[in-house]
């Protein structure tokens, strides 16, 4: 994009600056639009699962429902409880939403179409997503209220528990791809199985890791069946209980931006990102972005499907799953995957 | 072999993104506060500003005590996340370190597996 602005006769630094800001806006604004539409789509899907109609009044087919909701919260009063630590109380949603946006900087949307093509992209995603817990903990602490505090405790323990196994799962991906760069990881998936199917999930050794990653990403974003942090029957609304107006909506937006991010990561790390599913030349005529969006939406459908059908876990079950099943399993798979690569790829020549 | 010096300029877009994202979220938080004052929806009173406790006055200080197991999980997290931090550089350089590197890391992983087994046996992973 820098070249395009340079062709207007701008010096390189200016062209680069404008191109970067344009790139950021091209990520952030469609992302917020996508979040609004995805909330609508999910409500329609839940409704369909329960044989209800769902939002269908505002705009054609109810398409403008999320925007009406957005306008409503925009005009609401921001209530700051008198017992709250006001500064932290207001900073917490800012952190949540900022972090939810930041991780998108390294997601490759097409071959080379990435805002910051850093060589430790995957590590950056891991680092940013682990910052997300701060927004929740600060909200729970600053609210100075019983339910948000309990919820923040649960959220912190849950997020860090599943982050451990996500770390080991990502190590398996990195071992196979031999790089941290997101674009290179996608390229490494070309013809992953018999040179025909694109995607690490087609490899029998990595498929179980994808299943673990999908479930862990639901736990990491605190979605049903792991939404104990906002279990409304015991914790009212969890850490958001004391929030109102747009500060409340920022948690909502941040949650869905994170859900979309996890869906995209599923697609990028295990299902070939912007590559078509089959390594067949005519399929490459379809732009890579289309493939990525299609895959992301399939995963979003799975998220919505699970949320509509699976009952909530108990907290001890959640921690048991994370520490006693996922962690040992992912550890064993790090050994298996690295051992397999040593015997087939790296150890042979040495 | 490529240069080991990291080109920090590739992180500049991320820094700009951080500034824009912060400005955007701050606007989302503070703009409605201003709007509410203009439209007259901003009407705080003592009851509205009290913390939520199902309609009752709060029974106790919400920040009193919490289960020590949350703390235990955080400690365990530090151990295993640091372990993952050791694994990341090893994972990308497996082609260079070869068998010695692989065997060393397997010994390290075995030791951490013993650590996990110990925490398990001690009941640090039990919740009821």
Structural class of the helix and strand makeup of chain A?
mainly alpha
Based on secondary structure, the structural category of chain B is mainly alpha
Strand content of chain A: under 5%
Average pLDDT, all residues of chain B: 81
User: What's the helix-strand series of chain A?
Assistant: HHHHHHHHHHHH
Q: How far do the termini of chain A sit from each other?
A: 43 Å
> What's the total count of β strands of chain B?
0
Largest interface: A-B, 84 and 70 residues
The oligomeric status of these chains comes to: heterodimer
**Topology, number of strands of chain A:** 0
Mass-distribution shape of chain B: flat
Instruction: Characterize the overall form of chain A.
Output: globular
Instruction: Please describe the biggest sheet of chain B, giving its number of strands, its sense, and whether it closes into a barrel.
Output: none
Poorly predicted runs of chain A are: none
Please tell me the total number of domains of chain A: 2
- What is the helix content of chain B? 55-70%
- N/C terminus separation of chain B: 54 Å
Strand residue percentage of chain B = under 5%
Poorly predicted spans of chain B: none
Number of helices of chain B: 4
